[in-house]
Amino acid sequence: xxxxxxxxxxxxxxxxxxxxxxxxxxxxxxxxxxxxxxxxxxxxxxxxxxxxxxxxxxxxxxxxxxxxxxxxxxxxxxxxxxxxxxxxxxxxxxxxxxxxxxxxxxxxxxxxxxxxxxxxxxxxxxxxxxxxxxxxxxxxxxxxxxxxxxxxxxxxxxxxxxxxxxxxxxxxxxxxxxxxxxxxxxxxxxxxxxxxxxxxxxxxxxxxxxxxx
Length: 213
Ligand code: SIN
Ligand code: FE2
Prior knowledge:
Layout: H1 2-5, E1 16-19, H2 25-41, E2 59-63, E3 67-69, E4 77-79, H3 94-103, E5 112-118, E6 124-127, E7 139-145, E8 147-152, E9 162-166, E10 171-174, E11 183-189, E12 201-207
Antiparallel strand pairs: 1-10, 2-5, 3-4, 5-12, 6-11, 7-10, 7-12, 8-9, 8-11
Bound molecules: succinic acid and fe (ii) ion.
Succinic acid (SIN) binds near residues 116, 124, 183, 185 and 203.
């Protein structure tokens, strides 16, 4: 199953696994429903850069024991509560955990599911995912809605990069050498999917945060 779904990357990056069209349309619709339910409990917010306070163009929320966020005062971090409601994040729905378990059966379950919402024009600058105590367990990312151009390089900022499209239903896993690879989203191609009611892209990023004892 895994082999059949692995998409071809233009320029393979070690440790990167690409599961093209992994999620059936029905499943994608269900995931959007779940994201809506999560956002009704834990509203989307606009994160801001540490120190400068410059707002990111992406809106976000989380589910799971831990949620990732950034703001001017506290910087990049995980915390157990929503920054505005101060309530615990809703749990990660089983249907999302099942995707993790189907692709990463030997890994401990994720504790954080970051949900990013990109409106047309939103993007994400090149960064590493390294706020987790645990940098061994891969990061699994689900794309829903409009197509984006995703960019990934090596573990040094400013190195050579490659880019490819992520479409609705695609799943990407960054493990091994790609776990600490710089990556970002260059742009969203508005109107390329009608999964969401309006234009835009949803991304769910599942991460294990703590080390396994
Ligand atoms: C991220 O790196 O946090 C998001 C990546 C994506 O939207 O595909
Ligand atoms: Fe990331």
